[in-house]
Write the structure tokens for this entry.
Amino acid sequence: MKILAFAGSTRTGSFNKKLVRIAADGAREAGAEVTLIDLRDFPMPLYDGDLEASSGLPEHAKRFKHLMIDHHGLLIATPEYNSSITGVLKNAIDWASREESDDEPPLVAFRGKTAALVSASPGGFGATRSLRHVRGILVHMGVYLMPESVSISAAYEAFDEQGALKDAAKQKAAAAIGAKLAEFTRKLAL
Ligand code: FNR
């Protein structure tokens, strides 16, 4: 069982990168094979229909899409920009949703996958508004989303130097989301 984990932020000190790492460790401890990626390593142009028509999917969009295809579950940490999903995350989803040939099934990188979401922000809501938007997008794409999620507010003071959550209960809850995704994915595969 393979889980692809990433944050919707490219920022070096991203709170969501820290959070997804904790959840990814939880999934690993529960027996999943986890691939943790950084979207910074997948620089994609903004989706452009003319670019797609002339040269197909850009190299890094293709790499990202095929990683998704190769994994059963998705673990995503979503930041919040202006009460919604970040451009980086939406752009990656948009490119990965595109078909590369006429005989490719629609939304092959999404349909039937499992997913769990976590979120973090320096604000008081912990990016829960973006969580709702990402959930809405993925559900419509045929992804089976786990109902549970974890959101970290006041993220600027939530993590220690090693990247763990200072609050032991939150650290446990974030790792548990990864573990639950592993279990959920295993059950769905039966
Ligand atoms: C933000 N930020 C933000 N935070 C929030 O809780 N709600 C919001 O609506 C917004 N809006 C917003 C818009 C833009 C354009 C930026 C750049 C930032 C702050 C945001 O949560 C903060 O930069 C986080 O640190 C982003 O997540 P990472 O990069 O730490 O994972």
In short: Helices lie at 15-29, 49-55, 59-69, 87-96, 128-140, 168-189. Residues 7, 9, 11, 14-16, 79-83, 121-123, 125, 127 surround FNR (CB under 6 Å). The mean pLDDT is 97.
